[in-house]
Amino acid sequence: MATGNSWRVDVHHHFYPPEYLKALQNPAAGGESISMPGVSDWTIEHTLADMNNNGIATAILSLSPPGCSLGGPDENRGLARACNEFAVRAVREHPGRFGLFAALPMPDVEGSLAEIANALDVLKADGVQMMTSYGNQWPGDPAFEPVFEELNRRKALVFIHPHAPACCGNLIPWVPAALLEYPHDTNRCIMSLMFSGTLSRYPDIRFIFCHGGGSMPMLSGRVMHSGTNKRFLPLVPKGIEYELKKLHYDIAIAAYRPSLAALFALAPVSQVLLGSDFPFHSVRNAVAGLDAYGLPEADVRAIYRGNAERLIPRLAATASGNSQ
Description:
12% strand; 43% helix; alpha/beta; TIM Barrel; globular
């Protein structure tokens, strides 16, 4: 049960079912995540303790990279189903404390369409999760069109977590991909969706991008005004700025003054959400950084909970102590 002062919503909170921990031992996973503290020994109890200690009423669960793309199609489909069912058991066993961005076996389009139906119709997940890239394919690739067509039909909430593409995950061997390539791949993903026309063709999908949108806020002026963008402009008929402002961004590992200044210069407060990146970080870091930034109280409360309630209306019915 949430403590009396728990009212915030964390939209970027990882979980590790046994099946996923086993899959992370696959050499294709790179071994980076499973060696991190809090991953191999992850438990629901550890998650709840961090939530209770830092005022989190509800955490929306999702997988850390690389997601369910480590084996063959049947293995990946089975892994996504097992992870999603594990999370839904946690949702049911701890009422009001958890939600789910369901894993998809991307880049398997047929398998992903089946899992979207299962996750949203049967498991009642809050949305689905994708990665910023799959090998050397980004979400704007025409091969993924059926997936976005279906997500748009459902007006789905889509949480996109950064990953390192096959091309660029180890360019500087002593610099971890998570430090450099993850935020850059967020940029690639957003531009792949925008300049393929996916964002404008499927306007009813509600996207959340992690870590303050990578360096997209800082690059936004260049993207909007560089002469090289002219051939893409017919694909963004409402304008590049419109599409970037419509996206949602969490502040996991981005609650620092320079990052927040760039983000708020691009996106209205209504598009910003609280995220922790647990177990790699505690939400206390995001809370401390946002509080120190000095926004008006109403804006802070919107980021901590109100914006998430708008995207996930069921949260309003499970509010616990959100007058604190």
